[in-house]
Amino acid sequence: MATSFTRMDESTQEQWLHIGAQHAINQGRVADRMLMLLESLGEITDGFNADQLTHCLQTATLAERAGADEEVVFASLMHDVGKAITVTNHGAIAAEMIKPYVREDVYQMIRVHQDFQGKHYYHHFGADPDAREQHRDVLTAEQFELAALFADEWDQIAFDTEYDTLPLSHFEPLVRKLTGDMSL
User: HSE of 143 in the Cβ direction (CA atoms, 13 Å)?
Assistant: First the structure.
């Protein structure tokens, strides 16, 4: 049953209870869409050695093998999913997508990861390789350290096509778990 209103200001509580129930039933769609966007990254190389899906999988694999918690591994997997839309501001896009499912320090890690990763290549464009420092007064010390760990130890080294990278199917249960998909 669909609701019949054509304007929200003419809706009823009963209609909104129905809509809320439908949202809950369809929560699995969140994981499906995230996985779909990740898969689409397999078509994007943008000049890199590895496609962006492989890069995301490798980043998550490195985080998992280093003992990172589930939210950090999930965020590592999703960190470049914004590139399915645009490279510009892709970190902010990915951060907003995962925000409801991760704690604040993990959200911040992804939101600022581009400037933190810049330490390793911004100088090639004449940009400031210390761009991460602009976030030092905004982030807590713990958030800053986590963002640096992510950028320096996992993200910037995840372009090795010979690395034993875990497949997307390995991470799918985690994506479903953290997004509240109860169809596991």
Answer: 19
Which residues lie below 8 Å from residue 169, measured CB to CB, with a gap of 6+?
none
Amino acid letter, residue 33: R
Domains of the chain with bracketed CATH: 27-178 (1.10.3210.10)
Q: Do residues 150 and 64 touch, judged by C-beta distance below 8 A?
A: no
Give per-residue pLDDT as tens, 136-179. 999 999 999 999 999 999 999 999 999 999 999 999 999 999 99
- The answer to whether 103 touches 145, Cβ cutoff 8 Å, is no
Q: Which residues contact 179 (CB under 8 A, 6 or more apart)?
A: 27, 30, 31, 34, 101
Tokens of 58: 């490798």
- Phi-psi map region of 127: left, alpha, beta (phi>0 left; psi -120 to 50 alpha): beta
- Is residue 85 classed as helix, strand or coil in its secondary structure? coil
What predicted TM-score, i.e. pTM, was given to this entire model? 0.92
Distance CA 5, CA 15 (A): 8
Asked if 80 and 100 count as a contact pair (C-beta separation under 8 A), the reply is: no
